[in-house]
Amino acid sequence: MLDKPETYPVPQGWSLADIPPRTARDRILVAASGLFCNQGFAATGIDAVIEKAGTAKATLYNHFPSKQALIEAVLEAEGRTWRGWFFGRLAQVDGPAQDRIVAVFDVLHDWFADPGFYGCPFINAVAEFDTEDSAVRCAADRHKEHLLTWLKAQLIELGVPDVKEAARSLAVMIDGAIVAAQHSRDPTFALTARALAVCYLDSIRT
Asked: What is the CA radius of gyration of the chain?
């Protein structure tokens, strides 16, 4: 049985940077997210976060007792923000299930074309840290499960024979497009993946 999906608001920005911080904790999260996602999780030190957030070291440690705790909080907040934007955009798509699935790649294209695009924080974090870093990997797995759950719901409606495998295949196309666009700075990888997804969906429905 599929998990109950998250409820998503009207889409705004895809990043924490698009949400004005209201508290000291918010300012720290926004500052840390911008540095981690653009300069690297491992390469960014706490002092850099403190300077960018304009807060005292004691304030940061009052909210986040360690850099690891801050990284985990950034990933959770970035994931929630991105999902609100991404699935909120998809909720505005009219049409059958296949149209909604294909629209995923149109939304990705808009994301990739944003000058602030820095790739997926979860893909970046998992690539940076040891594979045994369970907290980072679990955060990435939870984030991916939201996408897989949404894909499975569309594929069930579409009536494909193997929903789990089809969702995994589409997730590979999505992740591949994200990584290719980040490395090349070319948003049209989303359109390439879109064409592949259309061919794939047609083939599994035949």
From this structure: 18
Q: Which domain holds residue 115?
A: 93-206
Check: CB of residue 102 under 8 Å from CB of residue 194: yes
DSSP assignment of 124-181: HHHHHS-TT-HHHHHHHHHHHHHHHHHHHHHHHHHT-S-HHHHHHHHHHHHHHHHHHH
**Spans of the chain below 50 pLDDT:** 1-5, 8-10
Distance from C-alpha of 35 to C-alpha of 22, rounded to nearest angstrom: 19
- Chain-centroid distance of CA 153 in Å reads 19
Both 176 and 100 in a single domain?
A: yes
Q: Tell the residue number behind the tokens 């907290």, with chain if given.
A: 135
How far from the centroid of its chain's Cα atoms is residue 188's Cα? Answer: 18
In order of 68, 144, 189, 192, 206, the CA distances from 199 in angstroms are 42, 23, 16, 11, 11
Residue 5 lies in a domain: no
Same domain, 119 and 197: yes
Predicted TM-score (pTM) above 0.70: yes
Instruction: Read off the tokens for 88.
Output: 């909120």
Q: What is the CATH number of the domain that holds 30?
A: 1.10.10.60
Q: What is the pLDDT of residue 17?
A: 83
How far, in Å, CA of 126 to CA of 179, rounded?
13
Residue 18's pLDDT is: 81
Domain count, the chain: 2
H/E element holding 79? Answer: helix 67-91
